[in-house]
Amino acid sequence: MSSPDLHFDNTASDEMLAAEATAGSRAAFELLVERYGGSVVSLLERRLRDHHLALDLAQEAWVRVFHALSQFDPGRSFRAWLFSIVVNAARDEGRRRERSRVVSLEEFRESLAAKEDREHTDERAVIEESLDCVDEPFRTALLLVDIEGLSYDEAATSIDVAIGTMKSRVNRGRLAFRDHWLRLSGTSAKEQTIGGHS
Fold this sequence. Notes:
The longest helix has 23 residues, at 26-48. Helix 2 (26-48) crosses helix 3 (51-68) and helix 4 (78-100) crosses helix 8. Helices cover 73% and strands 0% of the residues. It has helices at residues 14-22, 26-48, 51-68, 78-100, 104-117, 123-133, 138-147, 152-158, 163-185, 189-195. The model is unreliable at 1-5, 101-105 and 189-198 (pLDDT under 50).
C-alpha cells in the first residue's frame, strides 16, 4: 500500500495517480484535482451557464470521484472516467433545475434581445451563446471533444456511447454551432464561404 505522504510530479500518469489515490495517497488525489480541476469547472460552467453553481458542483463531482475510485479500472482512461462522472453530475443538476425552472426561456430571449441592441458584441460572448444554443446531446459532445480535448474514444467512453455515435454527434454539433454563430454574429453563410473569416 502507498504511503499517504508520498509525493508525485507532473510526469506521473493519470492512471498511476488514480491507483495510488485508491491505495490511500492524498497527494496523488490532490494532483489529479490540480490537473483537471480547471477543466471540470469549465465543462460544468458551459453546461450550466452559472459560474458559482459550477464551482459548487465541481466540489460535489470530486467527492463522487473520490468515493468511486475503488471502482476505477486502471486499464481505462482516467480522463474519460472522470468526465463521465462530471457529465452525470451536470445531468443530475440539469434535472433539478428543470423541475424548478420558471422563466428561463423568457430570460434567454431577453438576453438575445439585449445582445442585438449592442452595436459591438464581444466575440467570446457570441461563441459562448452559440454553444449554448446547440441542443443536447450534441453540445456535450462538442464540449468534450472540441473544448476539453478528449479523443473521440475517450468522449464516447465518458458518456457510454459507441465511437461512431460520438463522431456523428460532434459533427452535428459543429454544424449547429456554425449556424448559430453565423446568425448571432451577423455573418451570412455566403460571406463566410466567399470572404472567409476576414
